[in-house]
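Box 3.1 A note on notation
Throughout this textbook, protein chains are presented in two layers. The first layer is the amino acid sequence; the second is a token string describing backbone geometry. Keep the layers aligned when reading.
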Amino acid sequence: MKIIVFYVPYPTSEEARSVVVRALEQKLIACGNIVSSQSLYLWNQVLNEENEFIAILKTTSACVEKLTSFISDNHSYDLPAIVHWEVNVNEEYAAWVEKQTIQHQ
């Protein structure tokens, strides 16, 4: 069985939490985790090193478009990384994710 996992960095834990909670309330995701991270990247030819908070969101393929738009509309970065991929999971977990998301409401 397959689900979709999103990986989205945020500048603060509060912003990440706010987006996860609202996505849960709107049934766009079944579950979200927030992980502290140290990010290194080049921006305008300058090396940057910052603390970020990664939202890991679990959803279904039916919710990808709406969730991507929701994240984009509610992100403080000028250029947010909204990364997602399909992953294999056990059948029971996939059924739970599907049951928790919007297509069943």
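The CA atoms of residues 3 and 60 lie 5 Å apart. The chain is about 30% helix and 40% strand.
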